[in-house]
């Protein structure tokens, strides 16, 4: 379970400071797909960056499985992050590495022996439907295929939480549908908890069990997706 309790985030100090988050309260259950929906500048990325502590809240607490991690540093923070996979709008792949080298990278960092990590990377690329494309460089893959490599890389260390920041925003509608299907399949088969940032109602409806709508740094609505988007 991921809990944000009265989380606030202020960038900068004094009159030039900006309050990006205000009194955020969210509980995300194990295995669910939780959407953070809002327009550009609403505070979505800041909220999700408070979960992996790329940003520190200026007030409130972040709890993971009941443990207050708000002030975690050093080794403990690295340990915590090793259980969190991330994918981004722009895929963030290493351009000088092939697909399989990209997927192996976190396993290299974790000192997994070469033979084992090659096997695992092959297995993950097959899982995301990229068998046969292992030796391609990112520039030789479509956007949808690049995002699949990024998903395989995010899964390499077997995370319990996956943070998806506008993961389909750079993709055409066909690739978007395929990537959303893949994420749903991964959630259902592995039980990984997913936090999905999106500005798209369509993505929220297709993928998320529950959604928090954020506007101007505050949550304005929160609940099961079907209840939030039910037509009268
Ligand atoms: P979203 O992801 O919904 O587009 P962000 O969380 O990126 O929103 O940003 C929320 C607000 O905080 C915006 O007004 C943005 O300009 C501001 N902001 C984000 N990051 C920083 C930063 N590092 N320093 C100052 N202001 C920031
Ligand atoms: P799957 O269940 O998807 O087939 P596994 O969980 O069995 O994949 O993992 C495949 C290989 O990767 C195994 O050799 C396993 O020991 C190794 N492995 C899995 N997760 C990690 C991890 N977080 N760190 C190091 N090795 C891992």
UniProtKB/TrEMBL annotation:
The keyword Plastid does not apply. One of its GO terms (cellular component) is membrane protein complex. Keywords: Amino-acid transport, ATP-binding, Cell membrane, Membrane, Nucleotide-binding, Translocase, Transport. Coiled coil: none annotated. GO terms for biological process: amino acid transport. The keyword Transport applies. GO terms for molecular function: ATP binding; ATP hydrolysis activity; transmembrane transporter activity. Residues 2-232 form the ABC transporter domain. This is ABC transporter ATP-binding protein. The chain holds residues 1 to 232 of 273 of the full protein.
């Amino acid at each position: 379970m991921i809990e944000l309790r009265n989380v606030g985030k202020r960038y900068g100090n004094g009159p030039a400071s900006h309050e990006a988050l205000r009194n955020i309260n969210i509980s995300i259950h194990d295995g669910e797909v939780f959407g953070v929906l809002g327009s550009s500048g609403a505070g979505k990325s800041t909220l999700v960056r408070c979960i992996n502590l790329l940003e520190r809240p200026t007030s409130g607490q972040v709890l993971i499985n009941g443990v207050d991690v708000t002030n975690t540093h050093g080794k403990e923070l690295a340990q915590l992050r090793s259980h969190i996979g991330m994918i981004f709008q722009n895929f963030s792949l290493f351009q000088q590495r092939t697909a399989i080298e990209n997927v192996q990278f976190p396993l290299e960092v974790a000192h997994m022996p070469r033979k084992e990590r090659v096997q695992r990377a092959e297995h993950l690329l097959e899982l995301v439907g990229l068998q046969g494309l292992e030796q391609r460089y990112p520039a030789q893959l479509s956007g949808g295929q690049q995002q699949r490599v990024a998903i395989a890389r995010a899964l390499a260390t077997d995370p319990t939480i996956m943070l998806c920041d506008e993961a389909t925003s750079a993709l055409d509608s066909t690739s978007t549908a395929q990537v959303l299907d893949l994420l749903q399949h991964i959630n259902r088969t592995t039980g990984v908890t997913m936090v999905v940032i999106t500005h798209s109602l369509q993505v929220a409806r297709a993928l998320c069990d529950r959604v928090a709508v954020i506007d101007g740094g505050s949550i304005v609505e929160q609940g099961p997706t079907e209840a939030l988007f039910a037509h009268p």
